Automatic annotation (TrEMBL):
<keyword id="KW-0067">ATP-binding</keyword>
<dbReference type="GO" id="GO:0005829">
    <property type="term" value="C:cytosol"/>
</dbReference>
<dbReference type="GO" id="GO:0005524">
    <property type="term" value="F:ATP binding"/>
</dbReference>
<protein>
    <recommendedName>
        <fullName>Folylpolyglutamate synthase</fullName>
        <ecNumber>6.3.2.17</ecNumber>
    </recommendedName>
</protein>
<comment type="similarity">
    <text>Belongs to the folylpolyglutamate synthase family.</text>
</comment>
<keyword id="KW-0436">Ligase</keyword>
<dbReference type="GO" id="GO:0006730">
    <property type="term" value="P:one-carbon metabolic process"/>
</dbReference>
<dbReference type="InterPro" id="IPR036615">
    <property type="entry name" value="Mur_ligase_C_dom_sf"/>
</dbReference>
<keyword id="KW-0554">One-carbon metabolism</keyword>
<keyword id="KW-0460">Magnesium</keyword>
<dbReference type="InterPro" id="IPR036565">
    <property type="entry name" value="Mur-like_cat_sf"/>
</dbReference>
<dbReference type="GO" id="GO:0046872">
    <property type="term" value="F:metal ion binding"/>
</dbReference>
<keyword id="KW-0479">Metal-binding</keyword>
<dbReference type="GO" id="GO:0004326">
    <property type="term" value="F:tetrahydrofolylpolyglutamate synthase activity"/>
</dbReference>
<dbReference type="InterPro" id="IPR001645">
    <property type="entry name" value="Folylpolyglutamate_synth"/>
</dbReference>
<keyword id="KW-0547">Nucleotide-binding</keyword>
<comment type="pathway">
    <text>Cofactor biosynthesis; tetrahydrofolylpolyglutamate biosynthesis.</text>
</comment>
Amino acid sequence: MDVRERIRINGLDISKDKFLYYFWDCWNLLKERVDEDLPMPPLFQFLTVLAFKIFVSEKVDVAIIEVGLGGRLDSTNVVKEPVVCGITSLGMDHMEILGDTIGQIASAKAGIFKPHVPAFTVPQLPEAMLALEERASELMIPLTFARPLDPSVMSGLTLGLAGDHQLINAGLAVALCTSWLQRTGHAELTPNDNPEEGLPEGFLRGLSTARLGGRAQTIIDRPKMLEQIPDGNSGDLIFYLDGAHSPESMEVCARWFSSAVGEAQQSVKNGFVKELGYSHLYENKHSSESKKASKKILLFNCMEKRDPQLLLPPLVDICASNGVHFSKALFVPSMSVYHRVDSGSSIVAPNAPANLSWQSTLQRTWDKLIKEKDLVNDNGSKMQKLGKTHEDVTGEPLEKCVPVLKDLSPSAVVPSLPLAIRWLRDYAKDNPSLHLQVKTLHSKIFKSD
């Protein structure tokens, strides 16, 4: 939602005031040195320079730097002698730059390995692991396999980040932190060799409180304007936010969503509604919650360089194998006129009609996939072919979009994200007997100003 999410200190986004101060300081210094042979860096490189400037100026004790594309070709890979390096799960991504095989991609990612610096990785495909081992051997450095975290060492706590795949990431995080502590003279703070003793308090605090907005995040939708509704009968709308831009990460998203919607609805409410201050709206509805039917809706967008024929099948297949079927898929442009997604008053019509040709391509891919899979709706009826196209809703008021959205077709293209969310809220309000569970997936975060 905000560019400041890229630069965090002590787990918090840097403040707006500090960000602006460092931004213009960095910008002006670079601008003074621009000439024909040395232009201003593009966005990603500029943000990298800005991050380093902030970390140095704020005198951080340790910086955790995540490279972008990764490895030898990445502008972030400028630290010549890091304390420790780690490589997470690799997949078929950025193939136009890194290579079209998992081995080539792994070789490029291994570019972060440095002489005399220990390296860690997680379970990888055999070809990827072989490439990582070859590069480590060339540099004569140890490459250690970090096992997924065993939940039993969490002393009854749970990871702050949802999804079984986070156990893999947590295992790598523990290995990297342990190595850093050992190499910087803080061995007394590291975990004991005996796993039955669990993790030190500092590790437990970090693992249980880690948060990353928009990644396997569940939000019960309660716009501020609904606080005034006396009986709280405003519908039941839950967003399951996540992002994926490779088939492997899409599989992870699908598994998490299937698991999340399979949990008891009341446990979800207990975990999130009280946090948002809306538990009073459910006090008179507790007995009827378990009787509600559920409807799953996909809200989707990906960048044009992504291939929907690779991304969408894993989502459909894994969800279907877990008994989770989408009643409808909504395809929206990535640009949003929301300033915050939790604001109920930020719905502003775009000044000009959006170009929805790419969303129509996504829709056709989805419809073909649904037809081939011969999938069924939540109510057991077969998915019907789409009868209307995006021309029926492009540039029209919401009221004219609703008939397209309410029919039994498996998909629709909506001109903007705010219109889609408004329709979802209205639909939930008009159907209080439903749990409306919206899986929101993107391969590029919806942008804000």
